[in-house]
Fold this protein.
Amino acid sequence: MAPKSQQGKSLGGRKKPKTVRNKETLSVSEAEPMNMENMGHPEIYPLLLTTKTQEIFNCRVNEDFTDEQPYKLIKKEDFFADFHKRAAVSDFYPFKKIIQEYPEDELLLVYDKDFKYGFNFYLIGTEEGKENYLNPPAVSEEQEEQKELKEHAAEDILIYKPPVSKPWVSLGSEKEIAEESVKEPTKQITYMISRKRSAFGAPIQFSDQNASSVKDAYIECTAYPDKNFTIKQLEKDVGMQAVPQVKGTSTQTRWTYPKNAAVQYYPREFLEKEKETLGQSKPFTDFLNNASVSVEIALQQNEIMNTFIDDWKCLAEEEGTFGDKTDTHLKEFQSFTDLHSLMETMITCVSWHPDIYGLIAVSVAVRLSLEDRVYFSSKLLLQPSLILFWSFSDPIHPQLMLESPDDIFCFKFCPTNPNIIAGGCINGQIVIWDITAHVDRIENIKTGGNRSKKPILKPMFLLEPDSNKEAMYIRHCAVSSIENGHKKVITDIHWLPDTFEINRIGSVFENRSELCCQLVTCSADCTICFWDIRPQKTLTPQPAEKKKEETIEIPFDVPTTFLHLDLTWKPLYKIKLSKGETTLDHCPTKISLCEDHLYKAQDKLLAQNKVIKPEENPYQNLESGLANVLKPIDDFCTKFFVGTEEGEVIYTDWKLERDPETGRLMTKKPVNLCTVHDGAVHTVQRSPFYKDIILTIGGWNMAIWKEGVTTGPLLQSSCAPKRYTSGHWSLTRPSVFYIGREDGYIDIWDLLEKTHEPAQSQNICITMITSIKPWAFSTKQQFIAVADYYGTLHILEIPWTLRRPSANEASSVSHYFEREVKHLEYVEQRKKIREQHKKEMDLETEKIKLKTYQKSKEQLEAELQMDYESYLELEKTILLNLGLIKMTDRMSLIDVE
Amino acid sequence: MTEVEETLKQLQSQKGMQVPLVVNTEGIPTTTQDTTTTDNPTTTQDASLMYSFILKVRSTIHDTDPQNDLIFLQIRSKKNEIMVAPDKDYFLIVIQNPTEQAALSAPGVVP
């Protein structure tokens, strides 16, 4: 029964409550119902009975079960009926199997009040269990009330039963025993060692022994590298220094030094003898014959035609320019008039400034006849005579005004120094100005004009007066001596070229100073004077005294360049143009010098003496001429052309010659003299292109001369409708020149176009043109300055056609001149022939006349008869021709014919 | 000699001709006219210069076409024309001034 079983296994029973609580759940799907097997009660099946089941089976908790009888016997059939009724819902369903297997009819259901087995009821599944329970239930009740005591009591109560030996169930205790028991692992080996008794305790004797000699005498424990103990050093701290590797080496080279070496050779040449033999050899002559043929052909071909001419290029005229090429008129550019002068003035001479663009100088003279001059002489003294400098930029105010003692009729800029101007006065004096101090004024004219264009927003009183606007009066630097110079108006003045100079007798010397220092003037007193602007070497005491008397205060601002000349200037040399024995002399109006440049001979010694400082004005330190030192040059052409007042053109020499009779130096007689013009010759000018072609204009016609041709002018124009009053060659076209007329017209002549009349005629102003001066600034711009009698200076622009020379113009013109020369020669020859012819004719007529006087009467009659017969014949022919007489026979026809 | 002279004079009578010059195969001038004014250095210089040039031309023509040969050589320069007639032994060199005229250059300005 259960309680017994409980006793039997008290150890297990103590474990009950704990394990019961652990196993609570009883899953329905369990195949086997849970039993208390683990407690040692496999027959006990705890189960839970619901109240319904308790009612069915009449095992209600407090009604049917008591403490004394907490069990009930239920029949199997009841269980099966319950199963039929309630199937799975039945509480006993899980125990269906057990109930079916239960051998007996009644099962024991025990109410477990204390929930010993987890549920409120338990079923005992085996008969044996049932029996156990039924039988000792009374015992078990007692034991349950006195659990603890029962163990002790059990000893008293127990009926001693000899313990039934059961097979020992190992519960693990033998292990503990085994662990704690001591056992010998292996079987022990016993050794027995014996030794002689006498050996015990004997003194020990040690001996040496080489350990290695005896086998197994020692046991080595060799060292070996154990990898476990080797440590590889993975990192090492090392210091380094970088040092450039320098290597010093040296070599020694062999120095090859340059040496100058020269070789002289001479060309191989044949000796004369060899040449001769060679020349005579046959192959040479053959060769020459053969070769010369072809060479001749080639030469002739060249002569016939130049195959290398580019016809296309030659056809075209030169580069196109802007502007109308057909325009041939001179265009008015600007005009200048002096508005400040009191009296009416006219312009006598015009000259462009050689260097400065747009600057033109004009000499102004009063427009009065000699009578009026005398009449107004007092008034004239007050008004200074001026040379005005006009600039393109300012048409109202002249830039500079040069004062002179009297009216200037001609002036010229010095070619080597444009700051020196020499002018010839109406009273025969030469005046020199030096405007070096005022150069910057006139040079900056261009910029001054530009400056004024900019708008200056300053009030008027702050504006500084432009010094350019004020015209400065510049006094002349030097004038020539009145007694020794010319007596009448100077009509022309020229600077001698800087290549040569003249001494007192007119010999030509080389001019070493490269400066223009000599002038030549001609005046109405029939003399031509040569002047030198350098100080004269010989200073006699007389002039010094004279100087003292005539010291005049010279104003401060006058440069002292020519102080030595002032008022004491004498001409170097004078020529009188006399007409021979007659008192009337030639009155030269213009001269034209030969423009040959003297080429200097090399003379080292004298060249070293020349010291010229470039900064200084060379004219400051003019030394007197070296004419005394040098030898005169003989073959220089000293001839020049002179135009006179009477219209003659004289070609004369300025060198003095010794008169064989008197031994004095006399002027030579003119080489050539031609009266060509009807009035005073006012232009004698050399062509800028040909050194020996001279244009002379005077009166009503003009003439072109060639130097050396003494028979006459190459070309002489016919009388013009108006008088010619001025003229000038064109500067760029060899065949063009301009002539100004009395009525204000300019005639433009083109020799290649027409030679009998001007090519063009253009009106410039209303009055007589007094001076024409063209000037070429550039290839694009060329001006012509025309001065008129009323004092106005007109600047005109020359059109393209008049300034651009056509192709081969120069050669054509020179051809023309050559032709003219030949023509003149031919004319001369023809003249001679004519003369001869004429002589012959005269002789013949003389003869005939003589003959007629010798005729007799008979001859007269015979002659009369002859005449009559010839008359009859004549009548016949005329009548035949008229058709009045018929032709009868052939003979008469032939006769007629 | 006279025949040679005659030929040379005939050549020289052409218009614009300067002295003819004959050079042998080594480049040495063989003739100088007695009447000429050209001094020796110029002739020898001319001869040597032309000689090397002629040889060059000849070799050029031969190289381009071996069957071709130089018959005549004309060099036109600005100032004159040089003509060369070669032969197997000698060269005849002639300088001529061509017929076109040099244009006169107009001077700038007359002061």
